[in-house]
Amino acid sequence: MLTYSKLSFWEKDLFFNSLDIVIVGAGIVGYSTAISLKEKFPQKKIVIVERGYLPTGASTKNAGFTCFGSPTELLEDLQSLPEEAVIDLVRRRYQGLQILLDRCGKKQIDYIPCGSHEVFTDSKKDANNFQNVTRKINYLNELIEQATTIKNNFNISYNKFGFNNISKLISSKGEGQIDTGKMMDRLHRIVVDMGVHTLFSTEVESWEHTDSNQIRIKTNYGDFETKKLIIATNGLSKKILPSIELEPARAQVIITKPLDKKPFEGTFHYDAGYYYFRNVKNRILLGGGRNVNFDREKTTQIENTEEILNALKDLLHNVILPNQTVEIEHQWAGIMGIGKTRNPVVKKLSPNIFAGIRLGGMGVALGSLVGKELSELIQFD
Question: How do residues 311-330 score in pLDDT, each as one tens digit?
Fold first, then answer.
């Protein structure tokens, strides 16, 4: 690709001159922020820059769960956060999902309100976790109702799916699944229709404030200036925001070849949400397992490892689809951003520079709301 200095008059004028806002990251947060800003400032010139030829972090790689909190995850949060903070976090996830579904259209992204299930094996650890949840299920339902208005969201269920070594489930009626690819395509088409340009394969290396109250952005193809800069790179943010309180967390995923028939329909959580699986029509998608080796999975390397893949395959063959011959067709990895709490970072970093990052593995739920909150921080004289 040509450096910016070698572009034509027309190219410079269309893409780089008189920029009002530059957003770094063409994922859910980046696109959602651009949409919310265009709704607020329809005449402002906005450009998104993305280092990959596709969105690189997690947005095109997630499992497509419309989830806002499994029972064990909520109980874990309540150990480190006040009750009102947990309610607020669930409320923000739920609000974010409603923005996403309304914006994209449920049919356009294959939204299925199939509910979800947290599964518990017959191990002593899981049996104790299940008993703890059942003792507090009324309390958890009250918490969910305050956050989402959904009544009696959690219910004790049973294994009707043919899973091995699973007899206990807690079902959540408010969750579901979407097609991740269709979601990202829909967001991309919306920003294009609103007049927002996206520059792919463009990596931001640094930036600086200028004497004219602009921000000069340095990239792998040259420099250009903007009035406002927004960082929306989630788990990959440490490179350009080294002082931010954030850790990358790799999520690895596998998906089977098509099965003879749809095995089940639904979304499932296991082991405090560290494992998750669902059907994709008549395939099985299964991901997670970073708790097998937390230290190794704190990385920005987008690649699979045998250690995690073996853990996923073991769960697939021994628990989810026992006594069946199943072949894996695809495997991939994405990078999440996590912190000491599950709250995202939405803040002003310095004059005219803002960040919406660290979505804690809840990008589908939180991304649209984080974009809206970022847009509310932006003001022009």
Answer: 999 999 999 999 888 999 99
